[in-house]
Amino acid sequence: MLEVRELTKTYGSLFGGKRFTAVDHVSFSLARGKTLGFAGKSGCGKSTVARMVLRLIPSDGGEVLFHGTDLNRLSQRQLIPWRKRMQIVFQNPEGSLDPSRKVLDSLMSPLAVHRWGNRGERLERIEQMASLTYLSTELFSRYPHQLSGGEAQRVVLCRALLLEPELLVLDEATSMLDMSVQAQTMSMLREIRQKLGLTCIFIGHDLDVLRWFCDDLIVMHQGRIIEQGPVEEVLTHPKAERTRAMVESFYNWE
Amino acid sequence: MIHYCIRKLLTMIPVLLGISIVAFALGKLSPGDPAIEALRRIAVEDPTAEQIEAMREEMGLLDPVPVQYGTWLKHALSGDLGESYLDGTPIGAELLRRLPVTVRLSLLALFWTLLFGLSGGICMAWHQNSAADKVLSGVAVFLLSIPGFWLAIFAIILFSEILHWLPTSGIDSWRSYLMPSLVLAASNIGVTARLTRGSLLKEMGQHYALVASSKGLSRRSVLTKHAFRNSLVPVVTLVGNYFGGILGGSAIVESIFAVPGIGKYALDAIYTRDYLVIQGYVLFTGATFVLVTLAIDLLYAVINPKIRLEGGVR
How many structural domains compose chain B? Predict the structure, then answer.
């Protein structure tokens, strides 16, 4: 379903000196219904990859084939129908909501952008997804700052699911929540993933969560993929030196 | 929201009292004996000790200082700020007579600031890191770096002396307001543009803005529907403080262009040591500033629900 080839992103310095390569010729593919995990240190380029896949930031080379169409070749206008087929949930749920809008307005917005149904149908749709994400309708009239972290994350998740995306990117979506809420959210995500048949990209630091949630895993370091394969294999028999170090430090630290 | 308004109104009171105490002290501490000054004004050139004593009695200068302050405040509240030492005109009436000029000038300067500052800032943010962004940033730094008095003189030379487009001074028509208001706005246009740019880019980089583009909103819609409103809070603070400042009269610009506003009145009073006028000016501009600040606070509440609902449910 998703095929990424040689995706690259560089950032120039102010005076045009040597360019910094944030993502260096990254290639991978993802089959429908599967979940691909990304691990690696902060700044290794995993979030940048995800953002380029959704074309939230332009790439400097490479192809993103979604159902065989190279998204990098589409204009912003041509991209709009593709947008609703892939959604993203970020690390900071409160920052992902416009602080001057009530929850219901934020939830209405994606449906309005894609001219989906009339108001009644939209409300029905929202309620349906809210029940799937255990989101109480009482929260609809609140502003983002009146929500707890877990509540905000459910609002954001509900919003991402409204357009029935095929691909859901979870960019460290639970790492700002405390442990118990994180566990709840993760089981909810797994349940939803199964119900809706979602294909996911999951970016995270917690190897246990990655192991539990993903089918395949990519480990990145300084913009390059240093290891990729089935999650169990990568974590139990890491081939690359850095992957081994990462696994060891994670479990020893615990 | 109502609680917020009431609380803001209540916090104004001690500030206003503080201003009035400072203004009162200014009058008390100023050199010269008000009784002698008052006698001179009624043409008693060389008053005897008895005359002075009688005058002090009459003016209430023998009362304890807090009582004097109370009397003074009561008069000030009813608009009686005393009379100018120089020509005996009532200060309150003179301030009111000059107020429309300063208000007109300030509103026009505010208009330029918002027009050029906001549009410049939006333009820079929209074309971030392009040549246009860099050129406009340069212009903004240039504008905010030029001292107002220099720009005023330069503008007079260019537009009045060389080009003969605009009058050099006075307030004969709307054209007379153009130059002073632009000069008054110039540095703040620079600051506002830079702040708007930074603030907008910050909001455009927030996750909610990325989410908005991921759901298919164009960059223009993300900017107009989400980022702009949220980016306004720091801009409102800046522009509001600036407006409060110039509404109290902009002494330098008003005096260079000979605009008979409040600032010019105060500056002339400083030259002639007309203490009561300065006292009235301090009280008046202080109160104006506090009122404008209150207006900004209320405006915040409109822009930002976090402030509006403060103290509500978590």
Answer: 1
